Amino acid sequence: ILFLGGFVLADAAVKYSLDRNLTRILLRPFGSKPGAILLGLMVVTALLSAFMSNTATTAMMMTVILPIIARIGKNDPLRIGLALSIPFAANIGGITTPIGTPPNAVVIGALSQQGITIPFGQWMVLATPLVAVALIFAWFMLLKMFKPEADNIELDMSGKFNTSKNAILLYIAFAATVLFWITESFHGVKSAIIALIPVVFLTLT
Hints:
With 205 residues, the chain is mainly α. The protein is built from eleven helices and no strands. It has helices at residues 2-15, 18-27, 34-51, 54-70, 78-93, 102-113, 120-145, 165-182, 184-187, 191-194, 196-204. The chain is globular.
């Protein structure tokens, strides 16, 4: 049920271009320097992968970086670095939450059978420092191995959020689900039950 909720959110996000719009907004502060753009893409991918499956996030973000790669010289090593950064960041970001990658849920299920419960928020508190260190290390290694030749990369940041009724309902469901997941230790509702919010709400609407 936990993963079903994550898959529903991911599919709806793609349907209403929430993933692309979030990427556009989150990338804007990183400017036009190749190294900063690489870091920005990895941070965005890791954030999305925390609440979607690694595979779905990678497939989604690859469509985002193709226009960026097209703006880079064909002999620039950064093209390879950008392509590799997406699966690296997706795998690292998947550690952040219980729904980020299947092994997390397997561990939580095994621990629960032994009477050990790890709330969604507590998992994030424990995992986030590890994710941050691993992400920075991966970024540093990619920059060293595939040193960019270009000084600047101009990105197209145009676009706007979908404001249709169904899109707004998705935004509400997405925000509510993530908020309840993060605050699980406060209200005591299990993360699997919370995952039913998008499944039921989006299906009914």
